Amino acid sequence: MNSPHAPKVAGIDPSLPSPTQTVDPVTPPLTAPNSGVQDRLASWVSDLTTLHELTERLVRTDTLDEALRELLRAGAALVGAQRGLVALEPADGLGPVTTVGLGLGHADLGQIETIPRGSASAGRLLDGLPEPDGDRRADVTHPDIAGEADLDPRHREVAARLGFSASYAVPLDPCRTGPCTAPGLTPIPATGLTAIPAPAPGADAHGAGCPAGAGDHPPPGTASSTNAPNATSGTGAGHGRVAPAAATAPGIAAAMGAGGPSGRLGGVAWLYDEPAEPAERQRHLVGLYCQYAAAHITRLIELSRARATVATVQEELLPTRLPRVPGVRLAVRHHPGPHGGGDWYDALPLPDGALGLSVGGVTGSGPSAVVAMGRLRASLRAYAVMEGEDPVAVLSDLELLMRLTEPARSATALFAYCEPGTRKVVLAGAGHCPPLLTGQRRTEFVETTLSAPLGMLSCWEAPSVEIEPSSGETLLFYSDGLLHRTGEPMDRAFNRLHTAAASAPRGVRGDPDAFADHVLRTVLPDGSAASVGRASEDDTEDLVLLVAHFD
């Protein structure tokens, strides 16, 4: 008898053998990294994050003073100090030379400056002289000033008077690396930066390739006993120590450019209230930070030098003093913008006891606008001497000269021919702001803006205006920068100027200098600063205010 066959089912081949049951292979669990390596990596990440945050705050500073103060604050957080000072003294001798303190007043800085240069921390760095072994100074440590027998007595005396017991100083040098390489960080050649090496297999927190206590290292600047300056780390008897400088960093030197100050910029010193010194890792972090801070400060120094040069040229192109003419007294306030503008003023004695007054402005900013302003002002003076009694002719000749020699520019100008004896003033304007006549009985604008600026038309012409100021009245000439610095629309700015002149006290009206200060204090939002010659950070245009008071 034949055995029955299994029924055929669609999709199943009964001839194939049944699969054998298999067990999934067991994957061995990953070995957890050593806790010391994790702590070490976390410490590095914390350090890099801290440096990133501090450098981000630094690069947001726009002025040299802000950058130096931010440098002191950030460095104090990195090394755990309470006070500090930075002495800026570029090695090229072109300045600026200044000292800025953190937690130190002007009197305190004055006392610190009495310390002999060879003994003071910042002074030794500024000298930049080699040590007896030939190494150049990279940082100077005084962990216990009172206990250093070979320290200058004046140094100990000033330290005791100001209440600091230790100091740590580093140079501001954009072309050097940090004072030391932190354990576990490898220098990258020709960059001045550091790399994080791969941890050795099986290394623990105190094994090879990992500094002792690295796992306990908190972010720099935090309040922690581990991050506090180590008062006993290799201090011995407490003598001041000088660390050798590392090699130059060509990458950062190339990024600096060739136009900035070369060499060492100055020195930074942080002061401790108790005997202490920063730990090795803190030295490394503050060294890196100061390296990038020096690069940023170098750019700010270059910018400040350029602005000072432009301002000096601009001031030299303007009158150094105002003339004295019987019957009229003059005062002027001129505050150039940060980029250097083309606004000018002038007061020129003319024949027969007359006086020529002018204000104007050339379009654009920077050195080219300043030079163009100087040429136009000199030309206007020449035309005023020859035909000053006719202001329209003066401006017509100036416009012709400008079309021939400055075809790509335009300018506004206002010229007034004054006869103080008869108190007669003839004015002509070329697109400039109208002068303001003010006194006890009236305050009104003199309309002179019926013409276009110079260089805008093929043939310039405009009518002249004649006024007769009364005794005790004042005539104000100004640039549009005075109106723009109010931050308001032009109509409101004109009203603000009108109100300021009309509200001047009686005692101020007779003094043109006091009247000019009153107008600036009233018109400008930061008038108290502008009246004494300090421009606001947001001021981008020149400001000119020329006051003529008729006796």
TrEMBL record:
PPM-type phosphatase domain residues: 327-550
Gene Ontology MF, one: phosphatase activity
Ranges of biased composition (kind: Low complexity): 201-216
Disordered: annotated segments: 1-36, 196-243
Domain of life: Bacteria
InterPro entries tied to this protein: Bact_Sigma-Reg, GAF-like_dom_sf, PPM-type-like_dom_sf, PPM-type_phosphatase-like_dom
Pfam families tied to this protein: SpoIIE (PF07228)
Keyword Hydrolase applies: yes
Entry keyword set: Hydrolase
Biased composition (Polar residues): 222-234
Protein name as it appears in the record: Serine/threonine-protein phosphatase
